[in-house]
């Protein structure tokens, strides 16, 4: 009976800790994320959607802007999953690569810009808590993660270009490399 009692107490303790964590998020990170989302939506409204769309079309022209700059700007301004929508300005050939780079960026930037991917903050917060416990800087980790992410996301996007070319050739499919805006 003692075993069952300890198990039940431990089981309830798990949910109590979950509740405490949830409340700490509601008074800590959630208001920050909300304010960042409001700021980004206001920024897009001030700039105008046409300007944001033109930026995306221009960015499609070279790999650095396609897999580093555009994913950063669209993730920062639109967040996940809306940032993927900027891929509509990519030629068909580059769309798989853009999506690969964009989706990775939404994860690697979460430490510095939590509004980008608030649904996955628990991953970042778990790592950051361990870093804080060790007495190390969480922001230093976040910036390193962001910088390494930028480089790795670029490489991932570019490698996907080669994979797309290989599969297109194998399947006998020709994908357009020019942007066609309606």
Strand % is: under 5%
Structural class: mainly alpha
Q: How many DSSP-defined strands? A: 0
What's the alpha carbon Rg, rounded to whole Å? Answer: 21 Å
Describe the structure.
With 182 residues, the chain is mainly alpha-helical. It has a domain at 48-171. It has helices spanning 2-27, 29-47, 49-59, 63-78, 95-108, 121-133, 138-171. α3 (49-59) runs antiparallel to α4, α4 packs across α7 (138-171) and α5 (95-108) packs antiparallel against α7 (138-171). Its EC number is 2.7.1.69. Keywords: Membrane, Transferase, Transmembrane, Transmembrane helix. One of its GO terms (biological process) is phosphoenolpyruvate-dependent sugar phosphotransferase system. This is PTS system, glucitol/sorbitol-specific, IIC component.
Keywords:
182 residues, mainly alpha, 73% helix
Short structural description:
The chain is 73% helix and 0% strand. α3 (49-59) packs antiparallel against α4 (63-78), α4 (63-78) crosses α5 (95-108) and α5 (95-108) runs antiparallel to α7. The protein contains seven helices and no strands.
């Amino acid at each position: 009976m003692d075993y069952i009692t300890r198990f039940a107490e431990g089981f309830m303790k798990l949910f109590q800790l979950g509740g405490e964590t949830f409340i700490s998020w509601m008074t800590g990170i959630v208001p920050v994320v909300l304010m960042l989302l409001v700021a980004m939506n206001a920024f897009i409204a001030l700039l105008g959607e046409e300007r944001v769309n033109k930026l995306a079309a221009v960015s499609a022209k070279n790999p650095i802007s396609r897999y580093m700059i555009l994913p950063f700007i669209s993730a920062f301004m639109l967040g996940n999953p809306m940032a993927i929508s900027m891929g509509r300005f990519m030629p068909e050939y580059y769309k798989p690569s853009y999506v690969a780079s964009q989706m990775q960026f939404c994860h690697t930037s979460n430490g510095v810009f939590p509004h980008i991917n608030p649904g996955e903050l628990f991953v970042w917060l778990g790592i950051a808590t361990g870093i804080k416990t060790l007495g190390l800087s969480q922001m230093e980790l976040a910036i390193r993660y962001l910088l390494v992410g930028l480089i790795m996301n670029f490489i991932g996007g570019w490698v996907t270009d080669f994979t797309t070319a290989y599969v297109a050739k194998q399947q006998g499919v020709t994908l357009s490399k020019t942007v066609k805006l309606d």
